[in-house]
Structure formats: structure tokens, C-alpha cells
Amino acid sequence: MNAPDRYERFVVPEGTKKVSYERDTKIINAASFTIEREEHTIGNILRMQLHRDPNVLFAGYKLPHPLQYKIIVRIHTTSQSSPMQAYNQSVNDLDRELDHLKSAFEAEMLKFSRDY
Amino acid sequence: MEGGVSYARMPRVKIRELKDDYAKFELRDTDASIANALRRVMIAEVPTVAIDLVEIEVNSSVLNDEFIAHRLGLIPLTSERAMSMRFSRDCDACDGDGQCEFCSVEFHLRVKCMTDQTLDVTSKDLYSSDPTVSPVDFSDPSATDSDNNRGIIIVKLRRGQELKLRAIARKGIGKDHAKWSPAATVTFMYEPEIHINEDLMETLTLEEKREWVDSSPTRVFEIDPVTQQVMVVDAEAYTYDDEVLKKAEAMGKPGLVEIIARQDSFIFTVESTGAVKASQLVLNAIEILKQKLDAVRLSEDTVEADDQFGELGAHMRGG
Lengths: 116, 319
Hints:
The complex is a heterodimer of chains A (116) and B (319). By secondary structure, chain A is an alpha+beta fold. Chain A contains 2 helices and 4 strands, in the order ββαββα. Chain A has one domain (8-113): 2-Layer Sandwich (Gyrase A, domain 2), CATH 3.30.1360.10. Chain A is flat and about 60 Å long. In chain B, α1 crosses α6. At the A-B interface, β1, α1 and α2 of A face β1, α1 and α6 of B. Chain A: Residues 31-103 form the DNA-directed RNA polymerase RBP11-like dimerisation domain. Chain A: It is found in: Nucleus.
């Protein structure tokens, strides 16, 4: 009866931004990004991609509570970069990797059906 | 914003098996986070079409309305068109009513038993308003017996019993309800790397080798009948159960074999319900993942506030 609707887990409510940014007030070049209606799927690939950026000193994410449908990604970078820059870089790199994966899979499908 | 430097990887794919409802492929040069994201998206975020609303006009069968409605919802429907369909709640053509051609498909079922023989009502008795969305056909093309041409049984009717209903099928994702999940199961395993210490192995007798080889519940190792050497016959049969490692320790030979899970090679097994072809399921998952990444991009109005540190901050960031 009082269970939340299931679509609330993946539909961003009106008036809420998908991604919001909050600068850390104590550490320079550190910030938290709150991503609404996402969980480990996006959080994990984002975190692991951020780890590959040498300018990133710290990158982690958490789900504050299973009934709060959002993840908080915390990024701390060197002075050569900024959290926003590192975040954009990682999203672009992941997009590029998935593009490559898609074309690799399609090429392999063609090759497989030809050989078969 | 984006510099010339890129840390994107270039994953490699090799397909081993490919059928309509099954695919097995290798994914290399990427890490577990991408593999797991693909697995999660394939199971719970690739959209398909499933029956979501049932209006029953006549039901004199032994099952009640709710039971039949639930069984109808679980029938997989061919969903090639699902990626381009609209979600009912977002559809502006029908004001969220969820019953127009852009976001739904209508089905009808009208069956009455007129003979003394029990009548099976199956998914083949469902008639669709859209030929591209229909119950999945599970017939085996190679089989020849007449019993082969059967759909999913919904209910059985005795003489005089009748079932008449209208059903609306809509687009959805597995995260909402499992009936929308296009995957029967999706798994991946880390490719094992197995190294046998030949020096230690030579100190074993043939009986001890046989005993050690048999300690694995799956057939990973075998003894070459000619050379009496232990060799790996199927590394992927290894289930990471550590049985051979424990046996080696019990025999007083720790380090006899070294088994490492490679962190950049994954063997995927994709089994589809038939709603989407297994190969298309993988491609749809990659597309959905890209859409999710686009959704989490920073928008223009997410402005980085530099005010706090003023000139000092700008100087420290080398800007």
C-alpha cells in the first residue's frame, strides 16, 4: 500500500536536475556530483574511468540509502585539472569506448555470420 | 573543456557462438566495471514489450481473472520495435493514457471449448494489432512431430467454458517488472590463467597425479597418456572453487598450480527470452548505456563557482 512506485527508481521527477554539482568548502579542487536515478551501473564505470585519469587524486561514489534513488560521486583532482573537467573527460572517454565496443561487436557479427 | 588526451580503451570482441536466443563471446581489453555494467543493463534496462493491462469480458475457466492476467503479462512478445517505441507515461499522443499506436499494442483472445476434449488456450491464440509484436514462437524448426507447434499454455478449458479478453501491451524495462526483462540470464566469467609448476609436478607419482587431477569437480586437467604429464584441457571449465589448490596443500605441495583470474578478459554468455535476438540484445545494451552516459553529462547551467577562491584559486589551477 505505502510502497513507492517502481518507476520512481529510474524516472527523474519534474523540477529535479539529473546532475547537480556541489563544491567542497574545505578542500580545493574537490567536489561532489549528485546524479539522480542512477545506481551501480553508472557509478561503477564512472569511478573506474576516473581512476585512470592521472589528474584525479580521489574518485569514489556511494548510494546514500537504497530508498534514495541517487548516487553521489566525489572527485578530488590536482591543480592541473578540476572536478568538472575530470568528470566530463571520463564521460567522454566512456562514450568513446562504448562506440568502439559497438562497432567491434557489429563487425564480429558480420564476420561470424559470413564464416558460419 | 576536453583536452586532447584520452584514456578510453579499445575493447576487442570475439564471438564463439551465436543463435537467435543464445550468444557466447569474449570481451577483452576492458575491465570488470564495463562488463558488469553491460550485464546489468542487459538484464534490467533494455526495453521490451509486455502485456500490462487486461480487460476480461468472459472468463468461465477454473482460473480467476487476476491469475490469467498475470500469466498473460509473463508471455514474451517479440520486441524488435521496442527501442523506438515510446513509454506510455511519456507519450503525448494519448496524454499518458497508454493506449495509442505509438506506445502500446492491442491483443485479443477469444476461445471457447466446444468439444469433449480439454482445450489448451496458448499464446498462439493471442491476436495482435501489430504483426511485429506477437508472442514469441518456441517451435523447434528441426522437429517434425505434430505436437511441436505449441505456444505457452495460458489456461485449459473444458466443454462449454469460454475466455474472451482484450489486452494492452506496453514498453517497459526489467527494473520495473521482470516481465520486461529480455534476458533469461546473462553471465560473464573472468578468464582463468593457469600455470602448472612442472618441477613440483614431477615429484608426484602417477597415482598422486591421477588423484590430484580427479580432485577438481569439473574436468580442467588431464594426464597425457603418452608423456604422463599433467596438462590443462579446458581452462574455462574451472569454477574458481579452489579444490585443486586445497588438494595440493593436503598433499604437501603448495604452489603446485597457480590460477589467476585475468582482470581484462571476460567470457559472456547471453540467453534471451526470445523477445529480442541475443545479438541485438547486446547491441541494445550498449546503446542504452550510451544514452545513460548522455543523461549524466553536465548541462550548461551546471556552472563551476570559482568565486570562493578568487584570483588565488584561478592561479592555483593554472587557468
